[in-house]
Amino acid sequence: MKLRFVAVALAFMGLLSLGSGVVSATSPIMTIKPARITIDLEANKTSEDTFEVINRGDVAFSFKLYVSPYSETDGVSDFGTQKNSTLISRWIEIESVTIAGTVRTFLPGEIVENIPLEPDETAQVKFVVNVPSDIEIGYQSAVIFAETETAAEAVSGSYVDNTYRIGVIITANDDAPASLDSSPVADATEETAEDDTLALMPIIVASIVGVIILGLMLALLIVVIKHQRKSESKETTEI
Q1: Backbone angles phi, psi at 168, to 5 degrees
Q2: I want to staple 142 with a disulfide (CB 3.0 to 4.6 A). Which of 7, 8, 73, 89 is the partner?
């Protein structure tokens, strides 16, 4: 009976560990460069540019790309509100993604997803901006996000299954506000020591969760041992 109790307790501890998915050394690490792209726009004309999505981790993953409005007011970034100055987010289309010489093209309006990226691989993303003919162009800004979807080589419980998102800011024309240079998206994508710290945040969080769960497991083990000793002491007294 005592052996069954210990076995059940240890199994419960094992479920806690598996459910946490904490062995975070293989969490995907994704970066983008450059941090910001500035282009010149004219009505009824098309512009194009490229940026890179890089897998700096040791696990393969797939990612998707999408465009969102971007603006900044008093140092606060807004990635959802559509304004006259963010109409460019409607004009941007992802045209192609090139990985290791293989080009994958996309039709206008097509959802850009399920792009696999192996460790140390780089995806070159080409986008176009199709400006309408009946609009007066002033300052415009948007952000193209790359967001992880799944880890292609992941085993259940081998790393924290989280979503990681990073973006490149797209600005148009020369009257960009000076405060845009301090954008948190730009800071997060620069190849600096700060960028490395932000990229490692999922690993840091996973490590903290792992320590907490380890503490719970040890506490449960102590309870099991104490219970076993009490049972043995009771049996000895009865004899």
Answers
A1: -115, 130
A2: 89
The DSSP element (H or E) to which 198 belongs, if any, is helix 193-199
Answer whether 54's CB lies under 8 Å from 32's CB. Answer: yes
34: Cβ contacts below 8 Å, ≥ 6 apart: 51, 168, 189
If one looks up domain 30-194 in CATH, what number appears? 2.60.40.10
Q: Which amino acid is at 109?
A: G
Closest CA relative to residue 170, chosen from 205, 139, 132 = 139
Structure tokens at 73: 């007011």
Name the β-bridge partners of 38.
Answer: 171
Tell me the three state secondary structure of residue 115: strand
Q: What is the pLDDT along the chain (239 residues), one digit of tens a residue?
A: 443 333 333 333 333 333 333 334 455 689 999 999 999 888 889 999 999 999 998 889 999 999 999 998 888 889 989 998 899 999 999 999 999 999 999 999 999 999 999 999 999 999 999 999 887 778 999 999 999 986 544 445 555 556 789 999 999 985 644 334 333 333 333 343 444 445 456 656 666 766 677 777 777 778 777 777 776 666 655 55
Closest CA to 130 of 90, 85, 91, 173: 91
Most distant CA atoms of the chain, gap in Å: 97
Question: For 2, what's the count of Cα atoms within 13 Å in the CB-facing half-sphere?
Answer: 12
Q: Terminal CA-to-CA distance of the chain, rounded, Å?
A: 18
The model carries a pTM of 0.60
* Residue 239 CB partners (closer than 8 Å, separation 6+): none
